[in-house]
Amino acid sequence: MSDWIDFDQWHNCARMERPGFVFEVRNGEGRSLLTPCTVPLQLPFEWRSPPVDFRLVEAPKPRRSNPIPKPQI
Length: 73
Known about the structure:
This protein is mostly beta strands. The protein has a domain at 5-42 and 52-58. It is built from one helix and four strands; from the N terminus they run E-H-E-E-E. Strand 2 (21-27) and strand 3 (32-35) form a beta hairpin.
């Protein structure tokens, strides 16, 4: 993981992108989200405060779902 960067620098996120990594964005309430670099950043509707900082973190490993059960006849 990298150090937290002030959100004023978000417009530079494309230069910081790396394969296998995403950005963790944190708001003033301490809530966070994982996102690729998108300018402008689309914020979740439930966020009441603006983002304050971000950092580059390893992308989470994909989760496998259970197979769909066969229909019962």
